[in-house]
Write a structure and sequence with these properties.
Length: 341
């Protein structure tokens, strides 16, 4: 192979010319996500001097130098004051810096810069961001009743208090995620929906239900789910409204996330309703909390068609009323009878 031969020649040439060797920065490693209060965050900068000697390793946060390691100076290690940076000197060295007690101020862009000695003074650097997260102090579901009957309206709100950034919230009802419709259109369900319309059948599964679903987004941030539908697999899509709110900024600058859920209890919820709210911040944090609430059948209202079954109801009907209903019954029977003859 011509290419390989050429490559070998180039490598040989390079090996024979000392000036062609350079200091290389192999890797910079900064933990991308940390939580407030984290101790012992390790920043690493791995380099290869390729025969040159090291002059210095410097670390910067947002272009402010906070760490300098110079092997030929005394002391070798110097630390400079930068907001949010507490260096553990004893455990930091040439290729590693250990930070303690991270705070929100520790977030930023970290840069490692390695310089070679004279005569070349070659310098290589690499950067990486670190995000510091404050996890929510508390989360809860508000507004759930101790029990529901079929037909009741469930109106609950999930709160996740005091985090940075604001946590994202999602709702699940009996293990089924309640999704805002426009997100559903946006990803894989959108494809299913197309299939559904072409096939004209239920093969699209849950996606098919969105065909006729009206939805809107109002000023208060209400998104409406599509109408309930039964696909061929008799999978029930919950009809629900998600109420989204802007995160509330607390006096200490932390944020509270709020997501409301409103839906009507359906016969298939009979027995138990499981409401689950999940709160998460990127890949750093997630927490899920749930409430299990008993669901009873609708109690029959004690009136009209069922009056003869309810002792309560019939005792409250005055006798005139009873007589009227009995009269009406016979009258209609008589009419029916005479029409048949
Ligand atoms: C961050 O953590 C420190 C120590 O754990 C704590 O004192 C401080 O209140 C926390 N800050 C926030 C904003 O949660
Ligand atoms: C870091 O936290 C430790 C205990 O967790 C504490 O003793 C120390 O004073 C803190 N250091 C700084 C610089 O906040
Ligand atoms: C849900 O509850 C909130 C307050 O708890 C109330 O403001 C809102 O009107 C309720 N919505 C419905 C549809 O019941
Ligand atoms: C029966 O009637 C009484 C008094 O009117 C009422 O307090 C009670 O709830 C009723 N019971 C039923 C099952 O409707």
């Amino acid at each position: 192979m011509e290419g390989v031969a050429l490559f070998n020649i180039l490598v040989l040439v390079a090996l024979q010319i000392p000036g062609a060797l350079t200091l290389t920065l192999n890797m910079i490693s900064v933990p991308p996500h940390q939580t407030n209060g984290t101790d012992n965050a390790e920043l690493k900068c791995e380099f290869d001097m390729e025969g040159e000697s090291l002059y210095s390793v410097k670390w910067y946060k947002d272009d402010h130098e906070f760490y300098r390691f110079v092997p030929n100076e005394h002391p070798q290690l110097q630390v400079f004051d930068v907001n949010g940076i507490h260096v553990d000197r004893h455990r930091s060295s040439r290729e590693k810096v250990v930070l303690r007690n991270l705070t929100l101020d520790s977030a930023g862009t970290y840069k490692c810069e390695v310089s070679a000695e004279a005569p070349n003074f070659r310098t290589k650097s690499g950067k990486q961001d670190m995000v510091v997260v404050v996890i929510p102090s508390k989360a809860e579901i508000v507004g759930a009743r101790p029990k529901y009957q079929v037909g009741d309206v469930v109106n609950v709100t999930c709160y996740s208090y005091g985090s940075k950034p604001a946590a994202s919230l999602t709702w699940k009802v009996n293990d089924q995620e309640v999704t805002p419709i426009f997100e559903t259109f946006g990803d894989h369900h959108g494809v299913q929906r197309t299939n559904y319309q072409r096939d004209g059948g239920g093969s699209g599964g849950g996606g098919g239900g969105y065909r006729d679903g009206g939805y809107w987004k109002t000023d208060s941030g209400v998104r409406r789910m599509p109408s309930e539908m039964k696909s061929s697999s008799s999978h029930l899509q919950l009809q629900a409204e998600l109420r989204e709110y802007q995160p509330r900024v607390e006096p200490d600058g932390l944020e509270t996330s709020i997501l409301g859920l409103i839906f009507k209890v359906k016969p298939h919820h009979l027995g138990e309703l499981k409401l689950e709210c999940r709160s998460s911040i990127g890949s750093v944090y997630w927490q899920s909390f749930q409430e299990k609430i008993p669901v009873a059948p609708r109690e029959q209202p004690a009136r009209s068609g069922n009056w003869w079954r309810s002792a309560n109801a019939s005792s409250r009907l005055d006798t005139g009323g009873v007589r009227f209903w009995i009269f009406a019954l016979f009258a209609s029977l008589a009419t029916f009878h005479s029409r048949c003859l």
